[in-house]
Amino acid sequence: MLACASPAFAAEVSVEVRTQSGAPVRDAVVSLYPGGRPAPLPAGRRSYEIAQRNIQFSPFVQVVPVGSIVAFPNFDAVRHHVYSFSAAKRFELKLYAKEQNRTVLFDRPGAVPLGCNIHDNMSAFIKVTDTAFSAKTDANGRVSFAGVPPGMTVARVWHPYLRAPGNEVELRWTFGAGRAAEQVRVALRPPPPRAAAY
Amino acid sequence: MFRAIRTRLAVLYAGLFAVALGLVALTLYFVVHATVERQVRSELVASATVFDRLWKARSHELGNAAAVLSRDFGFRAAVATGDRRTAESALDNLRARLGIDVAFIVGVDGKVTGLADPKLSGDAARLWPALDQGETRGVATLGGVPRQLVAAPVMAPALTGWVVFASNLDQRQMHALENLSAIPIEASVLPASRVEDPAVRGGAPGRVTTPEGPAVALARPLPSLGGGEGAVLLLRYPVARAMAAYLPLQLAMALTGLVGLILLIAASWRLSLTITRPISALDEAARRMEQGETVAVAVATDDEIGRLARSFNAMAAGIAERERRISQLAFNDSLTGLPNRAFFRRHLDIELAQAAHRRRTLVLLSLDLDNFKAVNDTLGHPTGDALLCAVGARLKAGVGEALVARLGGDEFTIVAAAEAADAGRMAQRLLAALSEPVEVDGQVLDVAASIGVAIAPQDGADSDTLLKNADLALYQAKEAGRGTYRFFEARMNAEAQARRTLETDLRRALAAGELELHYQPLIALGTGRIASFEALLRWNHPTRGLVSPLEFIPVAEETGLIVPIGEWVVQEACRAARAWPEEVRVAVNVSSVQFRRGGLGATILQALAASGLEPRRLEVEITESLFLETSDTTLATLHSLREMGVKIALDDFGTGYSSLSYLQSFPFDKIKIDRSFVERLDGGPGAGAIVQAIIALAAALGMETTAEGIETEAQRAAVQRLGCTLGQGFLFSRPVHAAAALALLGAGQRESRAA
Q1: Mean pLDDT of all residues belonging to chain B
Q2: Surface-to-core class of residue B603, CB atoms within 10 Å of its CB (0-12 exposed, 13-18 middle, 19+ buried)
Q3: Nearest to B392, CA basis, from B313, B468, B336
Q4: How many CB atoms lie within 10 A of CB B546?
Q5: pLDDT band at A198, cuts 50/70/90?
Q6: Among chain B residues, CA nearest to A121
């Protein structure tokens, strides 16, 4: 929960993301834009961390506000070469060893796929968001927001494998005061082959 | 159609061989065909398997290339960052290095980059959904050409697109496949829609028709990428090409068959010739034998045909021998050995034809012995036969080249190609030869003959006429006093013609009632009363009027008509006499022929019985000539008649060969003195003396006498004075009708009574 603005009348919104077949979708990032505008982010820099452990990134999806610094600690005995060619942030952390820490500033909103040039199986995503109401679903495909201003809200649902341009769909909801529950159905691609079974 | 046996045999054998050969060839063809097709089918299946492996190997190769590129960090960086030039150059670099036909990148957003041929971009863009579904291999149609495609995702690190490598499924590729096959198949990859033949859609080899002829084909669907129109691998093997390997075998088979057929035809022709040549020879020989030739066939072998030929020869020899004997019997006279009538007729026909052809004359002599019958009758038939043989031999010796034939009895005939002048000399020579006495069985016989000569063509151009005319001439020679010869003259023919007409008419006359009896009375000179009537035959010819008996009686005698006529005369005379007074008798003339032909006694008996006339009232008048050829049966008949009471009179006594011995040989009841003596009674004493002597002789023998032909009162007085008991002649009455005779009786008897 990035933002906890508490205006006089606020709504508590619960969103559930499921596949077409009804399976809960985890790691889907839901971002709300009340009135179509991003909810202002709290001031100050925040730090986040994506660890490299057991030749895998952790977590798989990390939501960060614009201007956040993300650290990439390596807990493995091997070296990693983390990179991203994304539009939101292009970087390359060339071969660094265990216990070496590298940080990267993410100053533009967007999805940043992460890879390791040495280990193709390693995959993770950083969702850089510009609105305060932005969070990822849990294992049950649920995410909740408190203090959402009533009225029309633009909702964007992103998932690394979502079958849509930019892996994202946009919805419009209208909330009143009090609780609201929304359900989103999305189509997912199968995860890309990891083991290079070409 | 095939009438000759040898043709039939040859055709039969050749036909059987051809059928057998045809069956073998057919079987061979089908076996070869089935084998080839089976082989082709299994080869196609094997080729399809090979193609699968090639396909996989190619896929693998392409996949490896794509994977190498898609994982290249620099490439990924270029793709992810939109560094299009770098990405394209890297793509192009690898494409060239690995010899890949087409390479391009499909972005995760569906954009196609790196395509060398912009025309393909549309087809390439359409691959996106399939790629997005995770398909990476298969056939897709790019630019209308099916190509083998392999895609590899570009993870940068998320999926940013796909590297797609395409390999053309062109002739080059197909040739590689074709070269791997054991048989020269034709391989091609076609859009599925172009393979429509249901025979191959099942996945198993099947028969298809191609522009080059029938082929065995196998269609193998290829995995498709993007779900578009599928592609099919079509393996084909033309049957003709498959069969081509067996063409030498088939040719050899055909050649062998042809040579075999020719040999067989030649052999069966030869064989059938050996069978049919002797049969043909037999056939020909039989035909010649049919035409009358004497034949024999050569016996060449000892088999059935040889035996047949031997039997045939034996049969032909037998037939020839029998024919010779039959013709000898048929054409030779068994007594003299001379040619007989049948042979003579044939010979004469031939000679006449040749003479006419050469414009030469032909002489025909008809010869008859004089008095041969007397020899036969007095000396017996064996002597007669021996005489005939001797005469035959003399004639044969006398004529040289000419033909002598015996026609029957004592009739001989000679045919010679000679002139009329020679004919006379020949006849004279023959007569002279025959005039020499002949010694037969120790007896010396005098022989004489008469000869008639006819000369062709003037006396007859055909054998019938010539022979008839020679006979007429012979008849004339006989008439002329025997021992001589006569040439035929046309006059003879006319006479003969008249006689024939007369004969025909006479046959009719009896039935037509043209004959009638006239009666001339015989007057008892002592009383002047009618003692009897002589029945005289008259012929009232419808056109010629009355015909003289002198004219028709000889004809009736010759033809035998005298028998029925004589029968009628006796019956008619007896019937007429019944109407007369009891003391008046009736006399009928009987010819020697009637005796000879027999049955006279029975005829008279029948006539007497039928009329009821007493036998004593019937007189039978015979002439001396009867005794010239008299026989025991004639005398017996006369005796039996006389015993019955019938009177027997000797007519015309004193003329011809009259002999007093006749008077002794039979007890006549009456002698009729010939009219010639009566006529001469007026002339002088000589005739009177003879008549007186006859009357005296008759009286001495107890016979009555009748003077014939009394025409004058002086004659009547003379014969009466000489002692003749009866008179006949015009002085008393001409012959009259039966009714007139009856009237005469009434008048005459009254007159005499009155006298």
Answers
A1: 84
A2: buried
A3: B336
A4: 9
A5: very low
A6: B157
What 3-state DSSP class applies to A107? coil
What does DSSP assign to residue B528? Answer: -
* Secondary structure string (H, E, C) spanning B646-691: CEEEEEEECCCCCCHHHHHHCCCCEEEECHHHHHHHHCCHHHHHHH
Q: Which structure tokens are listed for B713?
A: 């009162």
Hey, of B150, B159, B164, which one would you mutate to test binding to chain A, going by the most A CBs within 10 A of its CB? B159
Q: Residue B131's closest CA among B47, B66, B201, B55? A: B66
Pairwise CB contact (< 8 Å): B158 & A160: yes
Average pLDDT, chain A: 86
* A196·B67 Cβ contact <8 A: yes
Query: B31-243 has which CATH code?
Result: 3.30.450.20
A–B CB contacts, 8 A cutoff, strictly below: 50
* Nearest Cβ partner for A165 among B71, B109, B155: B109
The domain limits of chain B are 31-243, 248-328, 332-488, 500-754
Q: What is the ipTM of this complex?
A: 0.73
Overall domain count for chain A = 2
Pairing of strands B618-623, B647-653: parallel
User: Which amino acid is it at B711?
Assistant: E
pTM: 0.44
Q: Which amino acid is at B626?
A: L
| Domain harbouring A162, CATH code | 2.60.40.10
Cβ atoms of A24 and A140 closer than 8 Å: yes
**What's the half-sphere exposure (Cβ side, CA atoms, 13 Å) at B696?**
7
Which of B536, B525, B544, B524 is closest to B734 using CA atoms?
Answer: B536
pLDDT value at residue B539 = 92
B204 forms beta bridges with none
Q: For residues B661 and B664, what is the distance between their CA atoms, to the nearest angstrom? A: 5
Our CA angle for A88, A89, A91, nearest 5°, is 160
Domain co-membership, A108 together with A58: yes
| Residue B382 DSSP SS3 | helix
Amino acid at A31: S
Which residues share a beta bridge with B515? Answer: B539
pLDDT higher at B37 or A99: B37
Residues A81 and A150 in one domain: no
pLDDT at B1 over 60: no
Angle between helix B381-399 and B372-379 (nearest 10): 140
Write out the CATH class of domain B500-754: alpha beta
Q: Do B153 and A192 touch (CB under 8 A)?
A: yes
- E strand or H helix at B84, and its extent? helix B84-98
Give the domain extent around A61: 47-129
Rounded Cα gap, residues B360 and A36, in angstroms? 163
Complete DSSP assignment for B166-205: EEE--HHHHHHHHHHSSS--EEEEEEGGG---HHHHTSS-
CB B434 within 8 A of CB B447: yes
- What are the Cα distances from residue A33, in Å, to A136, B137, B528, B657? 15, 43, 210, 198
How far apart, in whole angstroms, are the C-alpha atoms of residue B518 and residue B157?
181
Rounded-to-integer distance, Cα A68 and Cα B176, Å: 60
Report strand pairing: B530-541 vs B585-589.
parallel
Clarify whether residues A124 and A154 are in a common domain: no
Q: Pairing mode, if any, of strands B102-107 and B618-623?
A: unpaired
Q: Which of B646, B576, B582, B587 is nearest to B611 (CA)?
A: B576
Q: Do B572 and B517 touch, CB atoms closer than 8 A? A: yes
Q: Which residue has the tokens 């009928």?
A: B588
* Segment B488-518, tens digit of pLDDT: 887 777 777 787 788 888 888 888 889 999 9
With contact defined as beta carbons under 8 Å apart, do A103 and A91 qualify? no
* Average pLDDT over every residue of B565-589: 92
CB proximity B571 to A under 8 Å: no
Dihedral angle at the C-alpha atoms of A134, A135, A137, A139, nearest 10 degrees?
180
